[in-house]
Specification:
By secondary structure, this protein is an all-alpha fold. The protein is built from 7 helices and no strands. Helix 1 packs across helix 7, helix 4 packs across helix 7 and helix 5 packs across helix 7.
């Protein structure tokens, strides 16, 4: 997905006070620095496929930890933490498995947020 479109979505979501309070913490920044964005992107895809991709994910609404991995922080910051948040903030309806295009969108959005966070002071 185009970087400008991702940035526009991130800017819109960052205006939500709850979402704006999330930032990568030092251990999560270090995780990215040590492992690199290719590994983070692979992890993001695995996590989205298993935790968000099914039509009715297990523990939906409670399946995303608050931290410990940059993708988890990113999911809360980008409103991609559960199917309800995906529906409300991204227009992706609940009740059906995420399509390949929807999965790619979520992963691209998460990785763009993580990249932006790693560039921030």
């Amino acid at each position: 997905m185009e970087q400008d479109r991702l940035d526009a979505v991130l800017a819109r979501i960052a205006r939500i006070p709850f979402r704006a309070r999330f930032h990568l913490r030092p251990p999560e920044r270090e995780y990215v620095a040590v492992r690199g964005m290719d590994a983070v992107r692979r992890h993001a895809r695995e996590l989205i496929d298993t935790r968000l991709g099914p039509a009715h994910p297990a523990k939906d609404g409670r399946q995303t930890p608050w931290g410990g991995h940059p993708v988890f922080r990113g999911q809360h910051a980008t409103a991609t933490c559960c199917r309800t948040c995906l529906q409300i903030n991204h227009g992706i309806p609940k009740g059906h498995p995420l399509s390949e295009r929807q999965r790619a969108y979520v992963v691209d959005l998460l990785c763009r947020w993580i990249e932006n966070e790693c560039r921030a002071p």
